[in-house]
Design brief:
This protein is α+β, with helices and mostly antiparallel strands. The protein contains 13 helices and 15 strands. It folds into 2 domains: 203 residues, Peroxisomal Thiolase, Chain A, domain 1 (3-Layer(aba) Sandwich), CATH 3.40.47; 165 residues, Peroxisomal Thiolase, Chain A, domain 1 (3-Layer(aba) Sandwich).
Length: 382
């Protein structure tokens, strides 16, 4: 019996509201201690982002939940046709910003899709790699013959964690202590990086009869948490010894005055390791699979900032030859960093661009700085 192939046949994207340019960001997120951020111009200059999306109004009221956005992306795959939604056998949803800790993001998304009926639902946890883990679960389920039609999603709603109210208690506490009320760079940094949105893939064991499909050739992942400390985190605080103290070990007052539920990043740890460790695995993959850069027609790396673009190029070049920039496809600058959804949104835009030709190979790279995990995949246009 021949192995079952798995294909991405349709893609969709959902962005809440209109794009938010750089000069309007604080109109949505608010000012901490009524002052413009000192880090904002520095971060924006390095990351190159000019637009992003927020599921917020300018008075910082939510317009969509993460689950609602994800369900809208799923509906778009089927043109909101109730009969076609019934064809879903598996819903696999990855995110790092669920609307609540329980129930899972996947089942909450399913709750917005009653037409789908009673189906299997899975919710991989994590950060940027969560979307790829959702994709791999659906891929393996189809490949094993468990289901024939699955939907995988990646989504984020970070904006609710970036508004000034999340940090105001801490700013006021610092002021009372006669310390600088500006929030530490590791917390303020990510306010100018992150974006909201959702994307979905319809996956089956047969390619489209008309148009193109993307065959998934392989998906591989690796974690270096066995040797690396935590770098990006939320719901905890990093201790002097490098360990992470979770929110359950803080008092309610400490959670507020230390903005424990803000998203934080150890910038030094990120800069020194994120590219180097990713290159270590990609070199192993190239050697194991006998790949060269000539085999790759399109390269889709998820990067959080334009700062890393040249560094990734140099590292791949050292691993066996650089992938020319004309083969790169990145939409970070126009949609922002949408975490677990970013790779989906790149694929969606490229899939619909008219640029793809049958037989072309697409290499995906998704790094996750939380504790240094990486996902890689190869797709073939068919």
């Amino acid at each position: 019996m021949s192995a079952t192939n798995v294909y991405i046949n349709h893609t969709s994207a959902f962005f809440p509201n209109g794009p938010v340019p750089n000069d309007e960001m604080e109109q949505y997120l608010g000012y901490i201690d009524n002052r413009p951020s000192k880090s904002k111009p520095i971060v924006l200059r390095n990351n190159g982002i000019i637009n992003r999306y927020y599921a917020l109004t300018k008075d910082r009221k939510s317009t969509h939940t993460n689950a609602q956005m994800t369900a809208l992306a799923v509906r778009a795959l089927f043109d909101n046709d109730a009969d076609r939604l019934k064809e879903i056998e598996l819903l696999s949803c990855g995110t790092s910003s669920p609307d609540q800790m329980m129930p899972s993001h996947g089942v909450m998304t399913h709750g917005w899709l009653p037409e789908a009926g009673a189906i299997e639902v899975v919710s991989p946890a994590g950060v940027c790699c969560a979307g790829m883990h959702a994709l791999k679960f659906a891929y393996l389920a189809i490949k094993a013959g468990e289901v024939k039609k699955a939907v995988a999603t990646g989504s984020e709603r970070f904006s609710g964690l970036l508004v000034s109210e999340v940090f105001e208690e801490e700013a006021q506490k610092l002021k009372e202590m006669e310390e600088n009320p500006f929030i530490a760079f590791q917390k303020d940094f990510l306010r100018w990086m992150l974006s909201d949105g959702a994307s979905a893939f319809l996956m089956t064991d047969q390619p489209n009869k008309e148009g193109i499909s993307l065959r998934i050739d392989w998906i591989e992942g690796v974690s270096y948490a066995n040797q690396m400390d935590t770098c990006m985190y939320m719901g905890g605080e990093k201790q002097e010894d490098g360990s992470l103290k979770g929110f359950m070990d803080y008092t309610p007052e400490e959670i507020m005055t230390r903005s424990v539920f803000s998203i934080k990043q150890d910038i030094t740890l990120l800069s020194d390791n994120i590219v180097a460790l990713g290159g270590q695995k990609i070199k192993e993959i190239f050697e194991k699979r006998g790949l060269t850069v000539d085999d790759i027609d399109h390269f889709l790396p998820h990067i959080s900032s334009n700062f890393f673009k040249s560094r990734i190029y140099d590292l791949i070049e050292a691993s066996g030859g650089g992938i020319p920039y004309e083969k790169w496809f990145i939409n970070l600058f126009t949609v922002g960093n949408v975490g677990a959804a970013s790779i989906y949104l790149m694929i969606d835009e490229l899939f619909k661009s008219g640029k793809l030709k049958k037989g072309e190979k697409i290499l995906l790279l998704v790094p996750e700085s939380a504790r240094f995990s990486y996902m890689y995949a190869m797709l073939t246009v068919c």
